[in-house]
Amino acid sequence: MNTILKTSIGRKIAMALSAFFLMFFLLMHLTINLLSVFSPDAFNTASHFMGTNPLIQFIMQPILIFGVLFHFVMGFVLELKNRKATAVKYVKNNGAANASWMSRNMIYSGIAILAFIVLHFKQFWMHEINYKYIAHETPNATRYYEELVKVFENPITVAVYVIAFIFLALHLLHGFKSAFQSMGIPAIRKKTFETCGKIYAIGVPAGFIIVALYHYFNQ
Amino acid sequence: MNLTLQIWRQKGPNDKGQMVDYKVNDISEHMSFLEMIDVLNEQLVASGDEPVAFDHDCREGICGMCSMYINGEAHGPDRGITTCQLHMRMFNDGDTITIEPFRAAAFPVIKDLVVDRTAFERIQQAGGFISVNTSGNTQDANALPISKHDADEAMDAATCIGCGACVATCKNSSAMLFVGAKVSQYALLPQGQIEATDRAANMVAQMDLEGFGNCTNTGACEVECPKGISLTNIARLNRELMKAACKS
Ligand code: SF4
Ligand code: FES
Q1: Which atom of ligand 2 is nearest to the CA of B226?
Q2: Ligand located closest to B63 CA
Q3: Residue A93 falls within a domain, yes or no?
């Protein structure tokens, strides 16, 4: 097992496993966000549970942070290694002739997503940590919906949010099928599987965008 | 047709190299791309210049020697072919065609368009074979029944000619399609099972050692491969390596 991680394929598999984990997390996150559109109460309950349950706070959250960091660090490591392997560039290269824009620019869509995550951490996560563990404010199980609505009052926040999720969609349009291919799952070559990938890659970011727009226009 | 060629000229491995413009006239559309280069070279020799060095051998798409990155694509704009099978009818009168060597840190330029692809041979030597006793008691081939499906897939993988177009075209200079094909042709057959674990592990280790990049599944290799080797071979290679890691 140790040796496999030192190989190029081992790194590729590690990248895919962290991607699966993050894709699962995205689905969960979206489900909770969508609750805010249908029922503020349900959204508050779910958020309060996620924010106070020790299992989620002290086990799932660190695993998630590790997963995010791992995926990014590994992504950069692979990019650097690949730049070394392609030391001399072609004078003329027609990359679009044989591969999609998304697949050729994962590092850039990835960097855009990273920038957004930093912002997102600042906006939501740091606030939570401060509220709960630093300022020790009194727990309030109904504050989440109001806080969410307040964030989406700002048109600039909403615009940044929309752009970030477009980058996420671009990243997933290649990433979803790439992760399955890396795991050696042959079904990925089937048309139905590819369609599922597209539905996920466009549907999930679109869901996040709809939530943001809903709250902005619903003020 | 009359053409302008922009060709990479490099005197030797340590020369910096540069693109040089040439004109060739009266090229027939029935010529192959290599015949067109022959015309240019005759022209260069006649005028006392150094001809363009390029790799070629069979000139019928089976040896994999002819390389060349033409107009930004390995083996030029056509699909499922090598450079020797590329016809001049793919181009138009007055076109400017860029011709570069296959690029990858693991494929250093020797001269002009000739690159060193012996890294592929070293990968093969690391495990791309089966050990067969040839002492005279070899088993009858028909004694081991193999399903048609597996035989076909193994044969498809075995059609890889080791040309290196997959590496040249990959934005990461990854050799996964080549190694995937070479591992698959045995992974699908009973004869390949005995050395399966070592084969996958050793060939991948050698591939990494040679300085090929990491595959990010762009799929460009499969599009440019003259033999239609598919990405399923890379998926199989990934599975074979996982199996090898679990066994060891
Ligand atoms: S896989 Fe295709 S492109 Fe790569 S070396 Fe084999 S024949 Fe050439
Ligand atoms: S010269 Fe043999 S494949 Fe082109």
Answers
A1: 3
A2: 2
A3: no
Residue A2 domain-assigned (yes or no): no
ipTM: 0.92
Residue with the nearest Cα to atom 3 of ligand 2? B61
CA B64/CA B82 separation, integer angstroms: 7
Summarised one tens digit per residue, pLDDT across range B122-165 is: 999 999 999 887 777 777 878 889 999 999 999 999 999 999 99
Architecture of domain B117-247: Orthogonal Bundle (1.10)
Residues from chain B contacting residue A188 (CB–CB below 8 Å): 235
Residue B106, burial from CB neighbour count under 10 angstroms (0-12, 13-18, 19+): buried
Q: In Å, how far from its chain's centre is CA B49?
A: 30
Q: Give how many domains chain A has, as a whole number.
A: 1
Q: Do B3-111 and B117-247 share a fold? A: no
Structural domain contains residue A1? no
Under DSSP, the state recorded for B106 is: T
Helix/strand/coil for B56: coil
Domain covering B3-111: architecture: Roll (3.10)
Alpha-carbon distance of A52 to A139, in angstroms, equals 9
- Closest residue in B to A5 (Cα) is B245
**Size of the A and B interface in Cβ pairs below 8 Å:** 144
Q: What is the residue extent of each domain of chain B?
A: 3-111, 117-247
pTM: 0.94
Domain interval for residue A143: 8-78+100-217
Whether A86 maps to a domain, the answer reads no
Going by C-alpha positions, the residue among B80, B72, B52, B77 that lies closest to residue B163 is B80
Block means of pLDDT (10 residues each) for chain B, 248 residues, are 98 97 97 98 98 97 97 97 98 98 98 98 96 79 90 97 98 98 96 93 96 96 97 95 88
**Mean pLDDT along residues A166-187:** 93
Chain A residue at shortest CA distance from B108? A88
The tens digit of pLDDT for each residue in B218-238 reads 999 999 999 999 999 999 999
